[in-house]
Fold these 2 entries.
Entry 1:
Amino acid sequence: MSLSHLTIQTNEEVSEALKSGKPIVAMESTIISHGMPYPDNVNLAYKLEDLVRSLGAVPATIAIIKGVPKVGLTKDEIEHLGKEGLKVTKTSRRDLPYVMMHQLDGSCTVATTMLLAASAGIHVFATGGIGGVHRGAETTWDVSADLREFSRSPVVVVCAGAKAILDLPKTMEYLETEGVAVVGYQTKDLPAFYSRTSGIPLEMSVESAKEISTMFRIQHDIIKSQSGILVVNPIPEEHSIPHEAIDSVIEAAVKEADEKGIRGKHSTPFLLEKIVELTKGKSLEANKALVENNVRLAVEIAKEMMKKE
Ligand code: PSU
Ligand code: MN
């Protein structure tokens, strides 16, 4: 049986950018299908793509459409993922062969986006938050495949840290075990998504996109490592939500998930939706602002990486 209809496809804009050496920024699609309500999700995805273009780079939003991994989506494909929402298969690394074989629509998590971006030759990716070690992982073993992907796919991922739905100290320990550089952008304290700080100190901190590009070059070109780099970029002050305001909401969401027995891949989407509901949309506005902020930094990094010196 020929499987040639299932090869990774890049759209025209991305293909051209790869050929001519233009900076490209990858973006994930689980944030569209499972991370935000419709139509905010679709409008944000369009806005982010336009922002990347206006800053002089090319966007590559990544998803699986009818079994075909697509690096670079059409507007209709983005609309489809956003509208279908939870009906789309949330596709982490393990899910890829099954989703492709059955020609399903799949949204890509951070792990899958890194894998497909790297396969296509893209090394910078912007998102909101990454998966991590969940609270209670000492009994559930719920550790996101996102964390292991950083030791397998050479991609710089810009995020706003991790939400306190996760166990942040354990997440940092896990990343250290996997040999992943976690680099603070203009901060020495791990950002906690809605808040600029978590109280967890970072070992590595840089002031510029150029330094991040240099770290990646050393890792990729000189050491020939297959690891990615996690850049943590604090939410802009004016959009941040103080710990006192968000911590009790997160506690309530985690408690409800626990009571309802929500586990595994359904855990993160449930918690995200609950937080939006409990903050009456305030968290959604913060979420949009921080992703936009991460896209801006990712474009800068992608541009630095394209400079020939
Ligand atoms: N965290 C967020 N927003 C998100 C996600 C995580 O704050 O949208 C999504 C990302 O796609 C991430 C995935 O890769 O959830 C992690 O899911 P899991 O924990 O099941 O690996
Ligand atoms: Mn999990």
Entry 2:
Amino acid sequence: MAPDDKNLISNVKPVPIEVKRQKESLPVYYVQTKLVNEIIKNAVTIIIGETGSGKTTQIPQFLHKYDFCKNGMIAVTQPRRVAAITVANRVAVETGSDIGDLVGYCVRFEDVTTSSTKLKFMTDGMLLREAMLDSLLRRYSVIIIDEAHERTVQTDVLLGVVKAAQKERIVRKFPFLKVIIMSATMDVDHFSRFFNNAPVIFIAGRQYSININYAKNSQDDYAFSTVATVFQLHRELPADHHFLVFLTGQDEIETMARSIATVAKELHGQTPPIMICPLFAALPSQAQLKAFKDPPIGTRKIVLSTNIAETSVTIDGIKCVIDCGMVKVRSHISGTGLDMLKVQRISQAQAWQRAGRAGRLSEGTVYRVYTEDQFNNFQKMPIPEVQRCNLTSVILQLLAIGIKNPMKFDFLDKPPKELLESAFKELELLGTIKTDEDVCTLTDLGKKMSSFPLDPRFSKALFAANELGCVEEMLSVISVLSSEGVFVTANVDREKLESIRSKFSSTEGDHVTLLNIYKSFRGSKMNKQWCYENFLNYRNLCYTAEIRKQLVDLCLQQNIKHSRSCGSNTNVLRQALLNGLFLNVAELQREGHYVTLGTRQIVQIHPSSVLFRTKPSYVLFTELVETGKRYIRQLSIVDPDWLPLANSEYFKRFRINEQ
Ligand code: CDP
Ligand code: MG
């Protein structure tokens, strides 16, 4: 019996006619029956289709319509929280329901679902957390792992966890679990083999032809060449050719937005007006929406985006893509236990994805700010994260899910042995695991720590804060670090900014500075105007407060004294941080630069740090980034005497203060 659209939901609101029309014109709409039949027939189905063909928004709705929710919910996982939230909102609109009702989402620190939720969009990380409570994921009748080509650590681990859950549910005669893997065009055979030669369905997209242009000569400064290309095209092309420019990160996007605005002002009258739309994950969602809106007629839209617009979100109306050829990725520095954010060349697969964004509605053009020879030397595929990132969080999670030997876990691609071993070593130093021959178990502390959705280094710092009596402060610092940046930097006068920021600055470093900001924000009663006057990001600070509230709840469950404060004695706060971040210590050298303790990496203090000019002898850092030089970011001064107290086992190998 063909299901009726009207049966879909109880609480229906009218669906705008243009939304309905748009939905019915998507490529997946035409293959609906075939798709559903394949899914009914197979335990695992792999669906491949161009970005924008309607996979993420439509397929969950088809399944709901055909009664797949009878025995449980449909989970749809996304690697990025922003994608989970925006897609859930869109599907809520398309089904005429309020968000959190039939359609909900669940991302770290934010759960917008109720008992009536059937379609649950969530980050892959959240589903993994649920697997810690029930490794068979029995609340779900269908699990859709979306954007699988992204190959984040969490997605890869989830593939193994879901495969095991499906098998075990058969063995234990529980209701069957359907698994669907969705991806943009990528290495399909690999996924299919992993799932016992599961069938692959291709959805023909509506991709128009794309004209490809390469740079004639290789360019040293890709950012400069990108702006130059933007202006050359801006002079030549009609105003309704909107641009999508791929860049690497927030800072770069904000700087470029400023320089484009300045040059455009000088060209006033000679070229069409422009509307610049930044797009990156940390951007408040309201500001993100601007990129999806049509500009006034006669105005050119220029979207400056990170790789988020490669596949995660679709911007209609783009005719011209400008690809800088670079991407910011996290990768492990061999043998150090440290991850670093680094700008590097994209892969050929990514270059094709980026180009494809230009041909969604009509023929388009891509301008590659690199030569054809360079392109031919790009690697074919990006390296999956499990093969290049710190794995401590994941191993801790696998153990918490009940996987006894994570070394032998069924990975789609096995991480290198060295990465696994360094993760085990770090977890042992953090006091979270005990290894006995081949068997590895969580310690009591490890069990408690794994209930926090935090990097183990931060959860360790939290437990240390409990011992040292500064949980109140630690919760604020961790919440700020877990939010998406509290500073506003775009379109701001630098000098004014510095003078305002100095009000919050602490000589102890950035962590105490962030604490001061958070305390002042609370002191202002979370006032929007106050944030505006102080160049602080109101939404992200509210989000910080939300994160903090959730961490307090978890503290209550774990008997952590969440309101114990160290007052003005923030020394203990820095000591507690050191307990978690003991691998991230750097020592000043006579030559004026720093080296990381133990692994002897040469690093510099990032100019954004309040300690940039101070140059203390020892600092702990939160993050390593490479943009030309290697920089350490978010620092605190540490006293060398604290090091052996923070981790005697680790620091016994070093001779501190005897350079
Ligand atoms: O997953 P896939 O890339 O195949 O497509 P999708 O995310 O389901 O998007 C299909 C279409 O839905 C897009 O082309 C947009 O027109 C629309 N959409 C939207 O308007 N707002 C969103 N947040 C997501 C999608
Ligand atoms: Mg999608």
